[in-house]
Amino acid sequence: MSEPVLTISGLNVDYGTGTDAVHALRDIDLTLHRGEVLGLAGESGSGKSTLAYAVTRLLSPPGVITGGEVHYHRRDGQALDLLALSAPELRAFRWQELSIVFQGAMNSLNPVHTVHSQLTDVLQAHRPEMKKSERTARAEELLRLVGISADRLGAYPHQLSGGMRQRVMIAMALALEPEIVIMDEPTTALDVVMQRQILRQLVKLREELGFSVVFITHDISLLIEFSDRIAIMYGGRIVEEAGAADIYRDPRHPYSDGLLHSFPALHGPRRELSGIPGSPPHLSAMPAGCAFHPRCAKKVEACDSHVPVLAAPDGSDGSRSVACWLHRGAPAPAVARS
Ligand SMILES: Nc1ncnc2c1ncn2[C@@H]1O[C@H](COP(=O)(O)OP(=O)(O)OP(=O)(O)O)[C@@H](O)[C@H]1O
Ligand SMILES: [Mg+2]
């Protein structure tokens, strides 16, 4: 595996403070390696967007980071502590080193400005040394990169299809050649054919340009197809993390297994679609122990009282991790009750 470009350790996020606080993220450990596509999956409310906002320091009140560390690793070996960056440092960091395409972002293009002006604005703000003609040439190049003909540069957002607007957002995210691109459900509003077309293009661009991607979606079948590794979230925690093929062939967490049976796979053997009974927990009423235990058909004695930590399953080679008592010896007395 290549070197890490982003490391998240022990990250905790609450919404609200004091007695009103609810825990949205708990003990998140996650590493993004250079050049990889890391998929982040989980049902609605599992904390995927919160994680994207916290890591990029875009979390707004009542969201608060209450613990943990996030480091960005430069190519020269220097590590930047993202949670310690000042506002000007953050401005320089975002777009240039890391860019994010938000959930529903295609509707956030400014309706009264052309694609040309929106793409060149990003360049003007961060590359003041570029001449006007160079900015236009770069905007044309960016459009071509995402498969849109350069003659659409003068179009207004409403003159483009949803898929094209989404591609413009991706072009904008790539404008300054960042090392990391975080995409939060960038294609959910699009039909499946368009979703796959955009993702295929993104993976190709990643190969050409060498950036890393965190791709967030609730549709695990998309991730199986397009990501190198997948992390699965439930109730604000990562419950399993493994190579995409390992998750597909041999999911270890009963929740991962349930998710895989909730979406039809485009390739490979057909699976029966059974879904997951029940619904995800509310943050204000998180079950004790493993948050998934009330919905889990395989629950054992420890599950309703002890939180399983994310670790390599017993007897494995360490290339994957799972937070589930089925794959661990009996809980030690030192494990805290939640
Ligand atoms: N501003 C907020 N104030 C209070 N709670 C919030 C806030 N934003 C999110 N939450 C809660 O945090 C939890 C995680 O939300 P988040 O948006 O990160 O989930 P998600 O996995 O991205 O879901 P989706 O798939 O629906 O986008 C949810 O229970 C949500 O209700
Ligand atoms: Mg979300």
Automatic annotation (TrEMBL):
GO molecular function: ATP binding
Membrane topology recorded in Swiss-Prot or TrEMBL: Peripheral membrane protein
ABC transporter domain: residues covered: 8-260
Keywords, ordered alphabetically: ATP-binding, Cell inner membrane, Cell membrane, Membrane, Nucleotide-binding, Translocase, Transport
Subcellular location: Cell membrane
Principal localisation: membrane
PANTHER family: ATPASE AAA-TYPE CORE DOMAIN-CONTAINING PROTEIN, OLIGOPEPTIDE TRANSPORT ATP-BINDING PROTEIN APPD
Protein name as catalogued: ABC transporter ATP-binding protein
Organism taxonomic ancestry: Bacteria, Bacillati, Actinomycetota, Actinomycetes, Kitasatosporales
